[in-house]
Design brief:
With 97 residues, the protein is α/β, with parallel strands linked by helices. 45% of the residues lie in helices and 11% in strands.
Length: 97
């Protein structure tokens, strides 16, 4: 979940295999637009109730993380920009003055 806080921005769609309430708390802190549970996992009632309280939509996919991401990419959903966020943080990759 620390990667969610470090490498996402508001409105991002979070795909995860974790179903505990902490996922919702992290999503709320990061401004995540919605959560998709992969591999056919369904969250417990506590997680659902917290998401409803916080106004965070929950979805479920029967596909693996890999296939779920691939299907969303193929449908035109853009990346959250992780590559650029990571590249910007590498000191050796900065243009020389």
């Amino acid at each position: 979940m620390s990667d969610v806080l470090a490498f996402t921005h508001a409105g991002t769609l979070l795909l995860t295999g974790l179903t505990n309430p902490q996922v919702v708390r992290t999503a709320e802190m990061a401004g995540i637009g919605a959560i998709v549970f992969v591999r056919g996992k369904l969250p417990p009632a506590e997680t659902i109730a917290l998401a409803q309280e916080r106004g965070i939509p929950l979805l479920a996919s029967k596909y693996t993380m890999y296939e779920s991401c691939g299907r969303l990419y193929q449908a035109g959903l853009a990346s959250c920009g992780l590559f650029q966020l990571t590249a910007d943080s590498w000191p050796g990759d900065q243009p020389s003055s």
